[in-house]
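pasting for ref
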Amino acid sequence: MAATHSPAAERNRGPILAELQRVLPSTGLLLEIASGSGQHAAFCSEGLPGWQWQPTEADAAALDSIAAWCAGLSRVRQPLLLDVRQPVWPCPEPVDAILCANLLHIAPWACCAALMRGAARHLAPGALLVTYGPYLEDGLPTSPGNLAFDADLKRRNAEWGIRRREAVEAEARTVGLELRERVAMPANNLLLVFGGGESSIPRD
């Protein structure tokens, strides 16, 4: 199977990489949840030369595309089949960061709780969970584009929809993860950084 192409991943990969370069230490092992086409793994791993990258995907049909995008990249491991709702993830070692981009709004809400539980199991001490995508926020207006996107998601699947940031934070807190940063991103998206211990003031 040839590598598939996601225009959204092409647009957002630069801003995501810039934030990863800022918040992550110089070396480590990153577990990517819902790698999709594989474009983030290929691009971002090149911009984080001290990191090993483990891509994963719940859709078995996507594994060939991920492998094609990352062919020849020595620091990107072979993609693994991983559904966050599995009680055991196929990742035998603690990881230094987890990245999950554009999953929570196109998956049942149970996937959010499962993501947090899995992150708590697999993150090494001091490691970070980074999520990216659109969010609704209490007391803040939602862009017309995100409102239309949310309505379209719910038409496609009643279990989908843009998630409330505060609800995602609440799920994280149940497993001991606190929001460290809230970073406004292009196209009305947010990048959220979670870690153990005390949370800091979110950044706009």
